[in-house]
Amino acid sequence: MASDREGTRDLRWNVRVAEHEDALVRAASERFGVGFTSFIRLAALSEARRLLADRTRFELDETDWQRFTELLGRPVRVPAGLRELYSKPSVFE
Question: Which of 8, 21, 71, 81 gets the most CB atoms within 10 Å of its CB?
């Protein structure tokens, strides 16, 4: 998991959980040698990143949109090694 010391933490989360949920999370944090609070925070961040990675819609400001469209408009570059790889017969044929 990511470092426990990244940036300052000024906000507090208060979450109510069932006893069996608390026991499960505490056991996991102990198993991985991470403090309880750090485990919860890092697990929540990991899940948030995973969920947001599946997004299909992104909003860009004008500057970022221009840069994005410039990158899409560039000619395709095919590395020589890849061209060579695809010029050989497949091992599955």
Answer: 21
Q: What is the pTM of this model?
A: 0.54
| 13 located within any domain | no
pLDDT > 60? residue 2 = no
Give a yes or no: residue 93 inside a domain.
no
Token pair recorded at residue 78: 């095919």
Q: How far is it, in rounded angstroms, from Cα 69 to Cα 31?
A: 47
Residue 19, both tokens: 């006893």
45-91 residue pLDDT tens:
999 999 988 888 888 999 999 999 999 999 998 999 998 898 888 88
Tell me if 1 is assigned to some domain.
no
Q: How many domains does the chain have?
A: 1
